[in-house]
């Protein structure tokens, strides 16, 4: 009984392992009980493509290579590759199918780009599907060096490099002088030393760079400036202020455009000789009159500079200017005395009692004149009466 149980367990393990092996084989070989769609693609070369290599559509595993065959005959695309796809694939007219490297260590895969849906559907049953097989990096490099023209270019390049190295060794050219002459070497050392000095002073806070790095006030000022710029930018984005209105306000932009149009119209009128400014610029008679006015002003300024006449004398005669300065000083002193109440005129302006006395005198004089006027007829009568007795 125990022996039977052991044999049964062993048989179950064996058959279970066999089933797992079959399942793994089916999964790895993409085995399917239902038929899967195939796609025939023609390539100019196989590029070491093998059966079982993967097929990707836009980076997604979509099938594998079923067969790679050579078909003799005319034409460039004589390699037939049969692809087994996991599901149906719609190709568009701008589709691309390429054989590329699957990794840096080797291996190939086929990459499919179905194309754009707005280009129209491509029917592989009516048209042959053509793929591309670009050369790998090493193959492309070999092709580049294999060509006759490329070989000549490579030889010329190597010859130029050899000449450059030889000139450098002999001290020719800037690079050669840099390696052979001590002057350039010393200048380079001096530059490095100056740079080291600048860095040391910057660390110590000396100089402009050092102040920028170590002075907290300058840092705060710079930070405040950047903050102001950020605030201006924020206001401009939010629509605040004149700058923002110029950027965002369509009506202001239209006004600015209208102003520019008006300015352009004014300039056109000036060019055509319209208006006062246009006549000044375009009319030769007015231009001559203006030239005469400028010439008269120039002559007057020349006369002033030469010392002829009263005005030049005022400008150039030190004695006359001294007398005028003295007169101005006296007038200034007189007005100051008047304001302060000095002298007779000052007392008349500032002393109320003197003004009252003066008013009394004026009234008495006026009264005397009135009395004399009233006594004039009597005086005349007595004069006539006395004259009759003489």
Feature tags:
15 helices, 390 residues, 9 strands, 7-stranded mixed sheet, two-stranded antiparallel sheet, alpha+beta, elongated, 66% helix
Please characterize this protein's 3D structure.
With 390 residues, the protein is α+β, with helices and mostly antiparallel strands. Among the domains are: 38-134; 151-198 and 314-377, no CATH class. Helices cover 66% and strands 12% of the residues. The chain contains 15 helices and 9 strands. The chain has helices at residues 2-28, 137-146, 148-170, 173-180, 182-204, 207-214, 216-238, 241-248, 250-272, 275-282, 284-306, 310-316, 318-340, 343-350, 352-388; strands at residues 38-43, 54-57, 60-70, 79-85, 91-92, 96-101, 108-113, 121-122, 129-130. The strands form 2 sheets. Strands 6-7-2-3-4-1-9 form a 7-stranded mixed beta sheet, with no helix packed on it. A two-stranded antiparallel ribbon has the order 5-8. The termini are far apart.
Outline of the structure:
The protein is of the alpha+beta class and 390 residues long. It has 15 helices and nine strands.
What is Rg? Answer: 57 Å
Category by helix and strand content: alpha+beta
Q: What is the CA–CA distance across the termini?
A: 208 Å
Count of DSSP strands = 9
Strand percentage, roughly?
Answer: 5-15%
- The number of distinct helices, counting runs of at least 4 residues, comes to 15
- Sheet with the most strands, sense and barrel status: 7 strands, mixed
The level of helicity is: 55-70%
For the largest beta sheet, what order do the strands appear in spatially? 6-7-2-3-4-1-9
Listing every helix as H and every strand as E from the N terminus to the C terminus, the arrangement reads HEEEEEEEEEHHHHHHHHHHHHHH
């Amino acid at each position: 009984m125990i022996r039977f149980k052991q044999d049964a367990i062993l048989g179950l393990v064996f058959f279970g392992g066999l089933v797992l092996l079959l399942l793994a084989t089916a999964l790895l070989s993409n085995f399917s009980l239902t038929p899967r769609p195939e796609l025939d693609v023609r390539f100019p070369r196989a590029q070491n493509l093998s059966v079982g290599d993967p097929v990707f559509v836009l980076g997604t595993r979509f099938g594998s290579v079923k067969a790679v065959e050579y078909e003799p005959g005319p034409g460039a695309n004589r390699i037939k590759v049969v692809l087994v796809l996991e599901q149906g694939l719609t190709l568009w007219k701008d589709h691309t199918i390429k054989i590329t490297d699957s990794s840096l260590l080797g291996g190939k895969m086929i990459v499919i780009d179905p194309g754009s849906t707005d280009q129209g559907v491509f029917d592989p049953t009516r048209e042959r599907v053509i793929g591309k097989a670009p050369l790998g990096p090493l193959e492309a490099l070999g092709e580049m060096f294999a060509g006759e023209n490329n070989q000549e270019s490579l030889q010329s390049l190597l010859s130029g490099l050899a000449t450059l190295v030889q000139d450098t060794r002999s001290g020719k050219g800037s690079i050669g002088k840099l390696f052979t002459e001590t002057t350039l070497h010393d200048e380079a050392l001096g530059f490095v030393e100056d740079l080291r000095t600048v860095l040391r002073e910057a660390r110590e806070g000396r100089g402009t760079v050092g102040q920028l790095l170590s002075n907290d006030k300058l840092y705060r000022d710079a930070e405040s400036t950047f903050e102001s710029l950020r605030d201006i930018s924020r206001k401009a984005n939010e629509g605040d202020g004149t700058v923002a209105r110029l950027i965002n306000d369509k009506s202001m932009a239209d006004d600015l455009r209208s102003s520019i149009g008006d300015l352009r119209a004014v300039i056109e009128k000036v060019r055509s000789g319209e208006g006062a400014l246009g006549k000044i610029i375009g009319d030769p008679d007015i231009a001559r009159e203006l030239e005469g006015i400028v010439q008269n002003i120039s002559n007057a300024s020349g006369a002033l500079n030469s010392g002829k006449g009263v005005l030049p004398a005022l400008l150039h005669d030190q004695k006359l200017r001294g007398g005028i300065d003295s007169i101005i000083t006296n007038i200034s002193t007189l007005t100051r005395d008047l304001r302060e109440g000095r002298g007779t005129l000052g007392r008349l302006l500032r002393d109320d009692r003197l003004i009252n006395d003066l008013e009394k005198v004026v009234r008495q004089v006026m009264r005397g004149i009135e009395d004399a006027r009233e006594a004039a007829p009597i005086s005349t009568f007595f004069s006539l009466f006395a004259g009759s007795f003489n």
